[in-house]
Amino acid sequence: MISFIWAEDLDGTIGKNGQLPWHLPADMRRFKEFTTNHTIVMGKRTYESLKRPLPQRRNIVLSNALEPIDGVEIVRDAAELETVLKSLTDDVYIIGGAIVFSTTFGWVNQLIKTVVSGHFAGDTKMIPIDYDKWQLTDRTEYSADETNKYDYAFETWHRK
């Protein structure tokens, strides 16, 4: 299964200066639970924001500009990425950014989304998604607490 996994605010903002505009430990735990021991796919800027390959994952970066990096599989274009993904039997998680989301949208059959209840300044928005073509299969809402400073919801969607 190929899934998008991301967090956005109420305006669809997903990033600011290459980082998340909020700190939400519950979302980071969820991300880790889904992606550990699986393949993750990201763009160059998302990889650079992480500063290193994420451990216990197969890290694939879509970029025609990166030099080889230990622990990272670099694919140079969408066609090469599609070939690699079609050869996998494992779950794949597309983690961003917006260009990679746009490039891979047609291949995805699950959306794993965190909605952060707030409005944050940012420079990157999630790509438009027509949710009429998706079925919401799970939504769990959480209130802010000492660790997570914002209300948030975890959602899972499947392509109809």
UniProtKB/TrEMBL annotation:
<dbReference type="GO" id="GO:0050661">
    <property type="term" value="F:NADP binding"/>
</dbReference>
<dbReference type="InterPro" id="IPR024072">
    <property type="entry name" value="DHFR-like_dom_sf"/>
</dbReference>
<dbReference type="GO" id="GO:0004146">
    <property type="term" value="F:dihydrofolate reductase activity"/>
</dbReference>
<dbReference type="GO" id="GO:0005829">
    <property type="term" value="C:cytosol"/>
</dbReference>
<dbReference type="GO" id="GO:0046654">
    <property type="term" value="P:tetrahydrofolate biosynthetic process"/>
</dbReference>
<dbReference type="GO" id="GO:0006730">
    <property type="term" value="P:one-carbon metabolic process"/>
</dbReference>
<feature type="domain" description="DHFR">
    <location>
        <begin position="1"/>
        <end position="159"/>
    </location>
</feature>
<comment type="similarity">
    <text>Belongs to the dihydrofolate reductase family.</text>
</comment>
<dbReference type="InterPro" id="IPR001796">
    <property type="entry name" value="DHFR_dom"/>
</dbReference>
<keyword id="KW-0560">Oxidoreductase</keyword>
<keyword id="KW-0521">NADP</keyword>
<keyword id="KW-0554">One-carbon metabolism</keyword>
<comment type="pathway">
    <text>Cofactor biosynthesis; tetrahydrofolate biosynthesis; 5,6,7,8-tetrahydrofolate from 7,8-dihydrofolate: step 1/1.</text>
</comment>
<dbReference type="GO" id="GO:0046655">
    <property type="term" value="P:folic acid metabolic process"/>
</dbReference>
<dbReference type="InterPro" id="IPR012259">
    <property type="entry name" value="DHFR"/>
</dbReference>
<comment type="function">
    <text>Key enzyme in folate metabolism. Catalyzes an essential reaction for de novo glycine and purine synthesis, and for DNA precursor synthesis.</text>
</comment>
<dbReference type="GO" id="GO:0046452">
    <property type="term" value="P:dihydrofolate metabolic process"/>
</dbReference>
<dbReference type="Pfam" id="PF00186">
    <property type="entry name" value="DHFR_1"/>
</dbReference>
<protein>
    <recommendedName>
        <fullName>Dihydrofolate reductase</fullName>
        <ecNumber>1.5.1.3</ecNumber>
    </recommendedName>
</protein>
